Amino acid sequence: MTRALVIGIGNDLRGDDGAGTAVAARVAARAAPGVRVVAVQQLGPELAEEVACADAVIFVDASTLADRVTVREVGPAPGARAAGSHALDPAALLALCRDAYGRGPGAAWQVEVPAAHFEVGEPLSDATRSAVHEAVAVVRELLDRRGE
Amino acid sequence: MPRTITIDPVTRIEGHAKITIHLGEDGTVSDARFHVNEFRGFEKFCEGRLMWEMPGITSRICGICPASHPIASAKAGDDILAIGIPPTAEILRRLMTLAQWVQSHALSFFHLSAPDLLLGFDSDPARRNLFGLVADHPDVARRGIRLRKFGQEIIELLGGRRIHTPWAVAGGVREPFDAARRDRLLAWIPEVKETAHLALSIFKAALDRHRHEIPSFGNFRSLHVGLVARDGALEYYDGLLRVRDGDGNTVADKIDPRRYADCFGEVTEPWSYLKFPYYTPFGRAQGLYRVGPLARLNVCDHIDTPLAEAERQAFKALAGEAGVVNNSFYYHYARLIEILFAIEKIEQLLADPALLGDHVRAKAMINRHVGVGACEAPRGVLLHHYTVDDDGVLRAVNMLIATAQNNLAMNRTVRQLAIRHLDGAAITEGLLNRIEAGIRCFDPCLSCSTHAVGHMAMHVRLVGPAGELLDERVR
Description:
Oligomer: heterodimer
Low-confidence stretches of chain B: 9-15, 448-458
Structural class of chain A: alpha/beta
Largest sheet of chain B: 5 strands, antiparallel
Shape of chain B: globular
Number of helices of chain A: 5
């Protein structure tokens, strides 16, 4: 069983949208045994089984709403996106875990990285690049707190 | 009085889109338009990049089809290098292409379309989704999740990660495979075969329940286009283009994908960013064609795996006098047959001793200034066309995307459904449900076709002849 799962979400060809995957890459470079790191363009239902079986899950995504790196606990709740698209949001994915497998991770957090520029082919903006470093530290602290 | 109904955007497809339905003076449907409002401009953005980078770049176009674009791109690179790739590399690329089919088709059927088929088109929209499916049919939902995971796992084991894999390259692939990963995938085969059969039985059981709906789900004669093997078998990675008409006549055959521009043109409309490809010898008015699972099963002569071929025979029985299956509802059926085919073929490829060869990449310099790569993406034939200079710097890029090739057919499907289900000036739940379901038959991926990202909501507008808003609903 994966003890901790870090999921970076985003597209690194769309400027700041790549913040989540950038964090994931940096965390993966120094991940402890038992920590699995994946980068996805969007959350799909195929992740449900793995998320359900993990002790802890950390979702990392770019956010146009956050003005600083934020971390909050997230729990199961079918979201608007869950009803429609190919993609789920973290709360909807956790709800799918609960409904389909009768369980979820012991703890789940969503780390949001401030993002503002999403042009094709552009790198991370300076502000988001700086926030990525901060978010990496936040993720590592969450993992350390759990002894990973 | 002419009016327009707009559905903006459509749910359970990928990307942003809206639909308008235009009413004539007599209140009947005069036209329907499937609009695409997002544009990412990947073709333009790629100009100036090195040809070698393209598989990696194009793998990021979409998180839904992360494997198909790099395969087509790498094949365009092979063409520019003017080389044949090592046999092991071809086997591995074929595995990757089939894995893409499995994971994409599994998502389309189990998570996006099964709620319609199992819960009913008129069931509560709040429940007619994956969560409703889990509640009422938990085993089906779990099996769907694992089937998609099987496809994703192949992609991950081949490429090192699920998406954006830089694995396919001009000349072959980056890494050989090994026995441990092969055996891990072989262990999946019994389970996923059983799931494919389950899905087919679910679909067949639903046919009678929806028998009154099916005749108006994009049921019209059209051209069908796809790659076929040289012996006429269903093809997915290589082959030549074949065009069959709605009566089953082969109107063009053995078209080298390099010559696609001789047969397929694209026009644009001011109301959509999605191009409108058509078969140019028939002109724009008659050149509407469909691609993807339905078209592939219509243009091939046989399938070279036994279980899928048996299902194809049953599928062909639906054609009747037309000789080909012209009803878009049966995209679902064709998709499921292709899942079964892909699993059988994956099993065959995993058993091939050449799978584990060490030589997986041929190397060469730029030998041609133009390269075309084609493969069958889950939604239909995908072509990448590159023009490079002596150093391999891209001067022009054109991508012919499957969803765009179905654009005219999707418009016509919406029109047919609107004619059948529009009752007066009211925008009913039933109309919305069926138009969504009609579009979903094609499983359009607008992230690829227009290179858009985003999630769905649904917005319906009814507009009069002078553009006045008569009615509006948001879901």
